[in-house]
Amino acid sequence: MSPPDGFLLLILSSPSGAGKTTLTRMLMERCPDLRFSVSHTTRKPRANEVDGRDYHFVDREAFLELIDRGAFLEWAEVHGNLYGTSTAEIDRARADVSCTGMIFDIDYQGARSIYAAAPGDTVRVFILPPTIAEMARRIHARAGDSDEMIRQRLETAKVEFTMWPEYDYVLLNDDFDRAYVDLAHIYHAERLRRDRNPWLGGFVQGLQREQVEG
Amino acid sequence: MSPPDGFLLLILSSPSGAGKTTLTRMLMERCPDLRFSVSHTTRKPRANEVDGRDYHFVDREAFLELIDRGAFLEWAEVHGNLYGTSTAEIDRARADVSCTGMIFDIDYQGARSIYAAAPGDTVRVFILPPTIAEMARRIHARAGDSDEMIRQRLETAKVEFTMWPEYDYVLLNDDFDRAYVDLAHIYHAERLRRDRNPWLGGFVQGLQREQVEG
Questions:
Q1: Domain assignment present for A87
Q2: Is residue A140 included in any domain, yes or no?
Q3: Where does chain B have alpha helices with state H?
Q4: What are the tens digits of pLDDT across the range A67-116?
Q5: B194 at interface of A, judged by CB pairs closer than 8 A
Q6: Backbone angles phi, psi at B11, to 5 degrees
Q7: Are B171 and A192 in contact (CB < 8 Å)?
Q8: What CATH number does residue A70 fall under?
Q9: A134, B56, B143, B149: least buried by Cβ within 10 Å?
Q10: Which of B158, B185, B214 sits opposite A189 (nearest CB)?
Q11: pLDDT digit string (tens) for A139-156?
């Protein structure tokens, strides 16, 4: 990956049912300069999911071929399905001047890989559900997951909960609107970091020239 | 100073006339949980300044005595006047449970000292004027400064401009309302950092207990 150029890699992780996918969509709708990183997966689409928008749905053979070709910045197996982020996906967004960052809806394994590849560009947000009961309710309400998948998700959540100390920010999602405001503040503030605005050096030089000439 | 407990030390610095005092006041009005750090100074009050609100105005002898007693976390001489932040000022705010942070309207020398004393608690924001002409206009419009003081301030600004790379965030104050929104986003986001919320560990343990018992 290229050196830091102000491009922001905003990672959202959480146990299933904590609300990260809904919060990601809320942020995407309001921030046109942020691009959603569409992961590849071998998981079957849910009823409301669209190929190319929510995921690139591929079969296992195609996914393994992409791994062989070195197409993924990161990939992992979760609940027997493969998930991955293609390097080309990020490079396309970086090359687009109307795009200032990408948002990643990925688990802690993906978060670790992306952070390792570009630590200075990465902002990691972990989302917690208010209670286990509420988390379980949201998982059960989700269309298209089998009972076995639901059981696995609740089981995996036990491991995922322990990963929060690896993240820069932690949001408690007891109310989607409030959690969205928190997330939007984080995105806006992180864009203002000195090292994400490479134009500042030239701007201050301009002020100094104005001062000498004035 | 005590170990990190989530208390935020928000530092605003800028060349004179970039607007940091106005932005500080705007944030204070809207964030009652943020306390303004009232510095001590030997400078004479301006027409609109109130003792104990804007500064603790003291004479040079009293200031030197405070230095001798080790009362200051940081102090420095600027334009022939002494400025300092008393440790008691910060300790009082930390002890107040309704107060989640302090805001410091100080120069780069003060910023360095506070950062050195509590790097994990400190967030440093540098404010830039849009142009030198606009900065000079604001300095001239200020009541109570002599021509010599104005000349000195413009001269000092040359040094102050070079300090922006020491700050975490840099704001361009071409419009006070927009710069205020930027500053408010930074404050809100920084409060959400994992390491500023020591209650998170206990909260996640509670979720894990609920999961085992459920």
A1: yes
A2: yes
A3: 20-30, 60-68, 87-95, 108-117, 132-141, 147-161, 176-191, 200-213
A4: 999 999 999 998 899 999 999 999 999 998 889 999 999 989 999 999 99
A5: yes
A6: -100, 130
A7: yes
A8: 3.40.50.300
A9: B143
A10: B185
A11: 888 766 788 888 888 888
